[in-house]
Amino acid sequence: MALVFLPAALITAAVPGQGSRAIRECSTIILESPIDPPLRDSERILVCEELKGGINSPAWSRIPHSQRSYHLNVFLQDRGYHHPSFELQDGTTRVTPGEKTAVSEVVLKDPPPGLDFEKRRGIVAETLTPQLLDEVRNWMVNELRVLGYACPAVTLAANPDSGLIEIVIRSGMRTRVTEISEDPVPGLLPGVFRRYDAFVLGEPYNEDLVKLTESRALSDGHVESLRLRVAGCSGDTVRLHQEVIAGPPRLLAFGFGVNTEGLFLVRGSWRITRLGRTASLLDTSALASLKRQRIGLAAHWFFRPVPSRLFFRPEITFEHQNETPFEAITFKANFAPSTSLDTRRFGFSARIGPSYNFVSTIRGIGPPRSHLVSLDAAVHAASHYFDYYLGNPRAGFSSDLTFSLNSRNFASDFDAQQLRFAFQGLWNYREYDPPLWVFGVRGIVSSTFTSEPNPTGGGLPPSFLYFLGGAENLRGFGRGELPEPLTGGLSAAYLGAEARLASGLPWGMQPFTFLDAGALGTSSTRLAAPIYWSPGLGLRIASPIGTFRTTLAHGFAAGPHRPEVSHLQFYFSYGEEF
Amino acid sequence: MKNFFLKVSQIALGITIAFVLLFAVLGYFLTRQTSFVLNTKSIRWITRQVEMRAGVRLDFPAIRISARPSGALRSHITLDLERPCVRAPEFSSCFAQAHFEFEFGFSKLKFQLIEVGPVRLTGGNLRATFPEEARPSEDEAPPSGNAAGRRGTHEPASIRLPPWASKAPVNDLQVQLSSFEVTRGRTSYTGALILNASASPALSEIHAQIIDAKVALKESPISPFNDVIVHHCRIALKLEGGGSRLALNCPVELPLRATTTKRLPKFLADPRIVFRIESNLWNDGLLETSRHVSGVLKLDIPRFANTTLAGFGSVLIRVEGIPSQADGGEFNAEADLDLRFEVLSFRQLRLILARTAWAIPAPFNVLNGKAELSARGSVDLNGGTIPIQLVTDLRSPEENFETRSNGTFSFSRKEDEFRSHLKMDIALSRVRLVLPRIELTSIPPLTPDARIRRPVQAAEAEPSFVYEIRITTPAGPVLLDSNLAEIAIPVRLDLTVRSDKPVSGAVQVEELPLQLFRRSARVDYLNLGFKADRQSLNGSIRLIYADYTVRIELLGTIDEPVFRLSSDPPLPHGEVLSVLLYGKPSEGLDSGELQSVTSVEAALQERAITLASFYLLASTPIESVGYNPEAGEFSIKVRLGEGTSFNLTVPEKGRLSPGLRKRLGRSWSITTQIFDPLDPSRQTLSAFLEWRHRY
Mean pLDDT throughout B308-332? Predict the structure, then answer.
């Protein structure tokens, strides 16, 4: 079914004597000015009479002027030309496309409370085309579904002369999710995937949270596809129906990443995604980079009948770290009950449990060998929209609080309590869609409380000490370059701010500027001079195969420091975000 | 006493002889010495008197008068006027030459005009402007006479002549107007005229023959025929019984003016309609539209034919009433129609219309054959319904178009408004058409987007012509040949096209075997419903496998179809898809195939699959299918043969979706996690380009 047409250049040629803009599309059509985009071959079938190869039927080999004009009018409308004129001259249709019509204004009729079209960018001043109307309609329908109107009806009308778009909205009642029906998944109990729900039954419907639920369920790899669709609206209630394509339970995956810190990153995992009727999970993974190599075996054991978010998470890992300040091998085994909770706006997860750690310090500060039995705990809180926009950060808040308790009285080689709090917040200026400016703030506060003598001089292993510098905090310094000398700190704090231009440039380029600041302390509760800070510029490119990010920053130190600490630092990564 | 009577008799005789001698002398002078009485001076004096009394002025540079006796007390007068002109407030007329001959004499002691003629008025022109006939106001008493025959008292019809002229017949009157222009209101008649006429004494009977006349109508009520040509039109007007009777026998020719059709092709040698008007009309007055009229008017259209068109017919119109009161219902005109119009060569017609706004579109413009339009029946010309029939018998090597249509053309007149309504039932009896070549990978838009439209003016007047056309297929389905189907697609239609509403009705694809998903499938039914601005879809396709029967239901609208998959025995939705795409359940699929199935399911959910892309999916060997919810694109990679592949990307309609995992292709995706690969204890966003395989 090969399509053989004369190359457009041979058929489409400038008309001699007609000025430089007139174009002969074919023997029966002359365009007085070029159109953008040009006519496609599939369109030429309906308006041109000669086609190489004679692939058109004889019944369509003669197209009268009136019919040509009709089809050309449709094609031009599709491109935003709403005022064309057609003239028949010596058997040829001369087409004056006219100017494209731009959207001048969008007017909503009967919008429900909370619907704000002002934040929708990229509509006003754009060319009025049917595709743009589809885009507006789909955006409006989705926006209504996010506000809770699960079954809206939206109709549009556009004036080709004035460029006015009128949107008539029949939102219906604001709905609450009251019921979720499911297609059975072989081998699993019904309701297994309710543990991933980002929404709460009985609360107002929000389509974004439904999609977040799907995404969460898929991220663990239990099934190949999971869809929650609206099964019907009735009054102020909406029923959802879950459809699943399970696929085989074993999942083999290999991943690749790159950054200037670890150079190439390779990750492999083998996972049994559906163990038992509660879809427990067994995962074997390996990660390798220039800086770190790690092998792990973990399980998510959902031991309670569904629906339950409580699970046990036993895990064993071997890790080799080769950082600038140190080199160490760590063995860790932990067993942590974990759970999660979702409210209307936030999702929480927590785990707490004992772990055994063996650390062998090969190079750098720290005891040669350390045995630790710790009580580890972690609490993660994030707004739903932080998770929702994970692949393209623009809004939301995330925080993590971790602590590790170690005591000589509990089979540890030393007393040390480690506390870490990290947060990240993103703001979309005026909640534009697509976003225009995205502002971000992130920070870390870490501290190790210990009574061990000389904790930074070898009393504690490197995992209990803090280093700054690198893509995760101070981008004007090399990874783990601070403090100097490379002894680590007992406390650390970092705060970074970033402003990114999220749209407007070609090829998905998003430049940003940032300022990072941090300090380390040799005591658990006091930070010491100098304060390190690094302003810089960066570029984020959202390509079809992922996000590339590069930064160029200069590190400064306010306070006594070695001159060589202050330098330019370049950073490049694939896949990492602010 | 005797002497008294004798004396009285002598006096009376003397007076009588004196009067006789006086009349004889006067008669002698008038008949023998006409020039003594009738000369330039006297004629000019007469014209001045006429101008003073009647406002009509006669000018002539020169006049020749000659007279000869034509009997006792009779004289034959010849008047020749050079370039005479008659002028009045409403008209003016000049001739190159005017020649009058008449005889007058004494008869029964009266001076009388005995005979008039021959009269020759040649080389003339006429300009006349009359105001539009005023309609009587509601307060005015209606004139006498009505459609039912109510005839009130009125002055009998007559042409008033002075007594001395009332007995003279007019013989051999000939008028040649090389140009005339008569304007009445907004109607204007121009042209040329050659008229012969004669009249009986007192003009009680007038016979005229228009030898040759050509009239051009401005704002013609019979557009596009703006010219009227008559040859040898005989007119007889007889005054009798207080009224007048008009008999016409007129061949009339209505040519299509070239400017009307922009440019007529040369082979259209005879672009005109020729018919004959015959009438026998009685008028209570003298051709007065405000008086009662009754009678018959017949139009005979003899068969005319050229290489393209032919037609014939007749119209018999019976009139009764007062024409000027037509709006008030005081005038009835009923017509019996028998008209037939044939297209002898549809191909020739196509050539005629090719460069007009009525060009015959493809794929109809390769048909050839005949078509016949006929109108037969009775109709009230004030407003009524004409039955019409249309038959087509057209064909080409690839197509047929045989139809039988019946309908009505209704119209009504109210004041100056003429409204008409066409209602047709077109029955497609044997139709086979070829659809344009369509490539599923790139289907152009075929209709304008109805959402982009100019606002309807609220004050728009009701259109003067509306139509309602119903198209059905009672004799069997229409067959549509398409490159997308191996056999012609049978389609039944029941559509109604209205001028004031969107198309409504249904299009039904009948049972049709197809190859879908690499096996034989059967379209049980596929209905497209048209209602208001929406087109609904309702269809069912069956595919039979060894262990399953899969049914695909098509619902929703043409723009946003919904595909519901089911099976017997029942399988989950995803399994049905797996069977459709790859012929086996999902557990038998490799990772890439599994991802294709999930992509199709996602796209179906999001209604990102159009009818065309579904057909492409179903009819072409698939290499892989991808659905990118973030970019909103549904992509199909199909094998086109010879090792080539084609990527069809259908831009979607959703918005940004959670980006934890974004599919790139068969087994590749980008997975984003809160995970620092270099420090798993840290919560950092990281993304990996990932290859996955399930087994």
Answer: 82
